[in-house]
Amino acid sequence: MEKALRRFLAIALALIMSLGMCSVAFAASENFVKEINPKSFVPEGFIGIYTAEDLDNIRNNLSGKYILMNDIDLSPYDNWIPIGNRNEAFNGVFAGNGYSIKNIKINISGNTEIMSGLFGYIKNAIIFNLSIVSTEIKIVGSEDVYVGAIVGLSSGGTITNCISSGSITVSVSKKGNVGGIAGYSKTDIINCFSDVSVKVDCGTRLSYVGGVVGVTYNKISQSASQNSLSVNSNGNGAMIVVGGIAGGAFNEVINCFNISTVSAYSSSFATVGGIAGESYSITNCYNIGEISVKTEKEDLQYISVGGISGFTNFKLPSIDQPTEEKYNSYLTNCYYLNNLSQATSVSESLAMKNVASLTIDEMKNKNSFLGFDFEKIWSISEMGTPYIASEVSNIPETLELKTKENQSVFESPTLIVWKFSTNENVAVMDNMGNVEGFDEGTTAITFITSDGQFESCEISVTKTTFIKTIVEFFMQIVDFLFGWIFN
Fold first, then answer.
1. Mind listing the pLDDT tens digit for each residue in 32-72?
2. Which letter does DSSP use for residue 344 in this model?
3. CA geometry: angle at 458 spanning 454 and 461, to 5°?
4. How far is CA 347 from the centre of its chain?
5. Which residues of the chain carry a pLDDT beneath 50?
6. CA-to-CA distance for 134 and 146, rounded, in angstroms?
7. From start to end of 309-351, where are the E strands?
8. DSSP3 helix / strand / coil % (the chain, rounded to 5)
9. pTM of the predicted protein model
10. Partner of 332 for a Cys bridge, out of 83, 283, 327, 357, CB 3.0 to 4.6 A?
11. DSSP label at 407?
C-alpha cells in the first residue's frame, strides 16, 4: 500500500534528520519510490497473499504468480526459512502491490553454502512494488554466503521498485556476497531503495558488500542506499570490495546515488568506492556518503579508494587503438563530495567525462550535475540534493485498434518485463509497450513495466475494410494538398 511505503520513508527521514543531514535526505526519502496504484482485487491468473501462512506456502508452488493484498507481519516466525534454494529456485512473479512484509527474522549458522533473505534463490523471477520493513538477518557461515533483505542469490528476471530496511549481520569464513536488497545478482535491479545497516566480518577469500547489492553482473539503475556499511577482514590475503550501491558492479550502473556511510578495515586488500567498490561503467551517479578505510598494510598499493569507484576497469580492446572511443568502460557525469581526493584510484582521464568533486552547496544546485536528465528521471528540491522522480506514465484503460495496426499504450517507449493477453489471436504487446491487432475482437492485456507499474488495458480490434482503406488513403492526399497550398 502506498501509505505503508510513505510511513516507512518517513521513518527513514527521521533517522537521517537525527544525523544532521535533513536537507539532503528529505528529497531522497520523500520521493524515491515510484508511484503505485494498489490493486484492490486479485488479477486473473494471480494468487492473493493475505496472511503469513499464505506467504510461507509460496515455497509449495515456486512458479506461481502472487500478489500481496495487505501488510504481513512475520513476527510469529522466530526464524524465517528463505523461499527457494540452489535446487529449487523461485521462478514466478511476486507483486508487492505497495504493501509491506515486516519483521523478517533469519538466524542461520552452517558449514554449507547459505542463501538468505525473504527469498533464498530466484531464477527468471519478477519481484516488484515490495517493501521489506525491519528485517533482521544474522548469518554465520564457514562456506560461501549470499545475503540480501529481498534475495540472497538471483539469476535473470527483474527486481523493480522495492525498498528495504533493517539490519544484516554476517560472519563468513570464505566468500561473502551481501547487500541491502540482494547479495549476488544476475538480475536487473531498477528503482530500488535500501535503508539497511550492513555489517560483515570476512574470512580468507574475496567478499563483495554493497548498500543495494553485494555484487551484480546485470544493470542497476535509479536506485539508492541510505544507512551504513561496515566491513572488517582479518583473513590473511583476503580482499574486500565495498561500495555504497554495489560492492562489485560488472555491468552498467546508471542514475543512482548513495548517502550511506562506508567504512572498511582490512589486514590485506581493500577496494572501496562511494558508488561501487569495483566497477565497469558508471553514468549519472553521485555520492555524498562518508568513506573511511583502514589497513595494517603500510604499502598503499593494497588499498583502492574513490569517491565514485574504488577501482574502475578501464580496459582497452587493443593497444593499437588507444583512443577515447575505444575504452569499454567509463565514468560519465559522476559527482562526489570534496572530502575525497579522487573519483577512482585508476587514472584514465580519457575515460572520464564530467567527473567532479563538489561542495555540499554545489550538490544542492542542479546546474552542478551536467548530463543529469531533470525532465524525465531526476528531480531536486530547493534545499536538497537530486532524487529519482516518482512520476510514472499515464496508461489508457482502453485502446482501439484496426487489424494490422500497431499502437503504443505509452507516450514514449517503455520496457515491459512481463505481459499477458487473454486472447493472443486478437492482439499482443511487445517488450516496449506496442500493441498489434491481429483479428476482430476484444482482449485484455495485463503487463508490468520496468518502473513497477502493474496495469491492464482493454484492447478492441476492428477489421480494416478495403473501402475504408481507400477512403483513408484519399483523405491523406487531401490533407497533404491542403497543407501544401495554404502553407
1. 468 787 889 999 899 999 999 999 999 999 999 999 999 99
2. B
3. 140
4. 29
5. 1-32, 322, 324
6. 19
7. 309-312, 331-337
8. 15, 45, 40
9. 0.84
10. 283
11. E
